[in-house]
């Protein structure tokens, strides 16, 4: 069943050309990621993966795939980045706010260094809120990833957060398409690293 939030997101954010191919690959990795983390990933994230796969929103917000694709530096794995986040969270400067980090799953990172997380709470991963952790400040939002992205793409976040995403014209790029684009730029001599 497709959620209302996913339908709203699809109206304003088209999947990239490689999303259909890549989404199937990303969905195959779900069981591996869930086993490694000892959790069930949120159902709205799985809906998102089925349409978009892992990739980036506006070359700004990287949304991790469940597992890293062999041989590709462009696919970030939720398992890998969660492990890295939890090690950083346990450091004294972060632990006061985040505890040992074990209550969080890291699903994204933006160009400004903000961590996008789920806080594990309640009986079901469907209830996990999206959290943003930025320079010692934790913002907890009362909805999941797809609602968050739909609001980000339609101007529906609180002003402080919406400024990060702008007002419109958003583009999603699956990590495979990003890899192909950057390879083509590199091969043509026009690659500048971003």
Please name the defining characteristics of this protein:
194 residues, single chain, globular, seven-stranded antiparallel beta sheet, alpha+beta
Helix/strand structural class: alpha+beta
Number of strands: 7
Beta strand %: 15-25%
- The helicity comes to 40-55%
| Oligomer state of the chains in this structure | single chain
CATH topology: SMI1/KNR4-like
The named CATH superfamily: SMI1/KNR4-like
Radius of gyration: 16 Å
Order of helices and strands: HHHHEEHHEEEEHHEH
CATH class call: Alpha Beta
* Backbone shape: globular
Query: What is the CATH architecture term?
Result: 3-Layer(aba) Sandwich
Instruction: Give the strand line-up of the largest sheet.
Output: 6-5-4-3-2-1-7
- Through-space gap between termini: 36 Å
Total separate domains: 1
- The stretches of 5 or more residues where confidence is low (pLDDT under 50) are none
* Number of discrete helical segments: 9
Largest sheet, if any? 7 strands, antiparallel
